[in-house]
Amino acid sequence: MEELQQDLEEVKELLKKATRKRVQSVLLAEKNKIEKEIKNQTPLKLKADTSEEEKTPLTGYTVKINNYAWDQSDKFVKIYITLSGVQHLPPENVQVHFTERSFDLLVKNLNNKNYTMTFNNLLNPISVESSSRKIKTDTVLILCKKQREEKWECLTKVEKETKEKEKASYDTSDPSEGLMNLLKKMYAEGDDEMKRSINKAWVESREKQTKEDLPVDL
């Protein structure tokens, strides 16, 4: 390709100096010929580069990534995914596809496994062009560029809605009702020991209330 470019430049220079019509015609034909060769070679190179990236097929089975850490700066939301040995993979094996409200991560052929992670309905829109990923030692760092420099409460709309519902269920003007809701949640999510403790507290509370409601024996 470089040789052809040099030939083309030289022919162009000769065309500028040529005064005879026949010589100009020969040089012009040569110029068109070289330009055609360059044009035909360029897409071939691009096609070869593309095939190199797609050459690595998926092998093994695919694992969904559930564990991650995240933080943020004024401009970026940063998601950290720990994958042992990921720095040894070819860069094209770690792919991230961004949209304004989501991203998909695919890590191919890491220790005979593939790893995927998908985040949909991000809390706020991101810039697709300015978002990226970095490969560090045992870590993939995904950088989501914020469209607006504002603090994110969480990563997705679903997380925010869940938090708001939980807050509403405990935000009540009746303190005893809020406590009851909290105890119900603790009972539903607790282990056997927690449930026994709550049951015991509930029984003792009912017994105390019953004694207080009994009439005084005159």
SSE map:
Elements: H1 2-17, H2 21-54, E1 61-64, E2 69-72, E3 76-82, E4 94-99, E5 102-110, E6 113-119, E7 126-136, E8 139-146, H3 157-170, H4 175-189, H5 192-213
Parallel strand pairs: 1-6
Antiparallel strand pairs: 2-3, 3-8, 4-5, 5-6, 7-8
Helix pairs in contact: 1-2
Describe this structure in words.
- Helix 1 runs antiparallel to helix 2 (21-54).
- This protein has helices at 2-17, 21-54, 157-170, 175-189, 192-213; strands at 61-64, 69-72, 76-82, 94-99, 102-110, 113-119, 126-136, 139-146.
- The longest helix has 34 residues, at 21-54.
- The model is unreliable at 43-53 (pLDDT under 50).
- A hairpin with a 2-residue loop joins strand 4 and strand 5 (102-110).
- It is an alpha+beta fold and 218 residues long.
- It is 46% helix and 26% strand.
- The strands form two sheets. The chain has a four-stranded mixed beta sheet, with no helix packed on it. It has a four-stranded antiparallel beta sheet with strand order 2-3-8-7, with no helix packed on it.
- May be involved in calcium-dependent ubiquitination and subsequent proteasomal degradation of target proteins. Probably serves as a molecular bridge in ubiquitin E3 complexes. Participates in the ubiquitin-mediated degradation of beta-catenin (CTNNB1).
- It is found in: Cytoplasm; Nucleus.
- GO terms for molecular function: S100 protein binding; tubulin binding; ubiquitin protein ligase binding.
- Residues 63-156 form the CS domain.
- This is Calcyclin-binding protein.
